[in-house]
Amino acid sequence: MPTLGDYLLLSAILFAIGTAGVFVRRNLITILLSIEIMLNAVNLTFVAFGRALGSADGQIIVFFVMTVAAAEAAVGLAIVIALFRHKESLNPDSFTMLKW
Amino acid sequence: MTPLFIAQIVLTLFVFVMLLNSAAAMVYVERKVAALLQQRLGPYLVGPKGLLQPIADVIKLMFKEELRPKAADAFLFALAPIIAATCAFAAFAVVPFGADTTLFGWLPSSMRLQVAEVNVAVLVVFAIASMSVYGIVLAGWSSNSKYSLLGGLRASAQMISYELSYGLALASVLLIGNSLSLREMVDGQAGTWFGIIPRWFLFLQPLGFVIYLTAGIAETNRAPFDFPEAEQELVAGYHTEYSSMSFAMFFLAEYINMVTVSAVATDLFLGGWHGPFLPESLGWIWFLLKVSAILFFYVWMRWTLPRYRYDQLMAFGWKVLLPLAVVNLLVTAAGVLYFAA
Amino acid sequence: MTLFYLFAAVAVLASLLVIGQRNPIYSVLLLIASFGALSGLYVLLDAPFVAVIQIVVYAGAIMVLFLFVVMLLNAPQEDTEYDERVHPLLRPGPMRFGAALAIGLLVELVWALTRGTDTGGFPDGSVSSVAAIGQSLFTDYAFPFEVTSILILVAMVGAVVLARREGPR
Lengths: 100, 341, 169
Known about the structure:
The complex is a heterotrimer of chains A (100), B (341) and C (169). With 341 residues, chain B is mostly helical. In chain B, 67% of the residues lie in helices and 1% in strands. Chain B has a two-stranded antiparallel ribbon with strand order 1-2. Chain C is 72% helix and 0% strand. The N and C termini of chain C lie far apart (62 Å).
């Protein structure tokens, strides 16, 4: 049977993959997707701990995390659309107007 | 390999085959009822009274050439009808269609007439319905033609808009039934009031039933909400570039989604398989009758009402149906609190 | 146990492919597959409600939103100043530094997790009837619940305002 440690290890791997995506990829949408991977890894951790400690609180926190993730995805994508309209590019390196 | 296990496997195959048959039957029923409503004859050549017409249609579709536009994304183009059909079949897997039965004493213990018993069955149906949007969206995108893309986006925007009212109508009836399992919801509707009126949730939730059915019709892209499909008469829709069996899979998916919506409506609002005069073990006959009634209503709606224009459709979904569903939920919650106290 | 390994393998593989794909549509679809695997893991953890909500909210709504945006923008795939034929993950600057950081994070986490005492298996008995979650959500956590609804309202208004066109020209 999988132990708590197995689940935590899996979520650590997923979190690291998400982090790699945010650092390495140069496409705004893929960066947002990697952030969603990280949030899901955290959700898995919460549910695993909730199960291990015998409390329903883990799942309730997951409920809130999902809601916040939805709101953040919506606003993030709206910003991406606004940026794309301005400059026809999804590469974060091309938005340099605020640089000195 | 106990007899129960074998019986379960046979039941699963049986449900699959019956869903396919129901899609074929719906093709015939649609054309015949449409014809009779329009005072003409409909199919009558193939087989007695045209009953073999669906077989002729299937054979015709199988012999057509399977086309793929050169610029289309091949993998997604092939995947989209698969997603649509798979989600349609999967949603029916958690719908119970009869009481526990021992197959007339053949089995050692009673077997559920349901492919999979889940205690959150209503949510599973809702989840798979929300996954079926992908079939349409990917079909529109992968065809790589502007009209397909716009048709696909419109159809999926319509589906996700009406999912909200669908879910809220479900929530209202769940408040009354007090469970998420479809089987327990049906069991809560057994018996009658005053010996005559059956204890259907329809009588407790009339507005909820209307909202559920309306949202269900919009979810399955049927008239009067089938603008994304009718678009193809004028311009193009998401399945323009499809032909032969891929096209057949989309329409199979549509008819099976209709059957699933009707089956869930029967289980939640019309008492499932409970009915007078028949023993519980033959309850599936009542289930069939009730589902057929709702399917007839579907076809009747299609050929009676003119279709909504797309902006009217979206305005209706957001500005009329959603507030109604919210009000219904609030009133139901207040009622449950009051009458339970 | 085999189910756990199956779902875990699908989740990790799909996530790796998500960050490795060039075409954002494939990334979104692979992420949906990853969410499906995670949903299976939640079912294994005796949390059917969260599993279904994961499909409804994440795979069914948020990813549809991503898909819509990718399709509407019809975005070119990562145009950069670098040589276009080189895969994005193989370009020198971002790859080395980013990958190094991410691997460093992974090493740290694995070290921290394997260092402690054995955490043991899960206790028996399931925690999650939907009724229990609902009970807790509407009594102990009623305030965050209401605040979340305001958060969603703000996000809706913000998304509409941010993505709106400039107005009649």
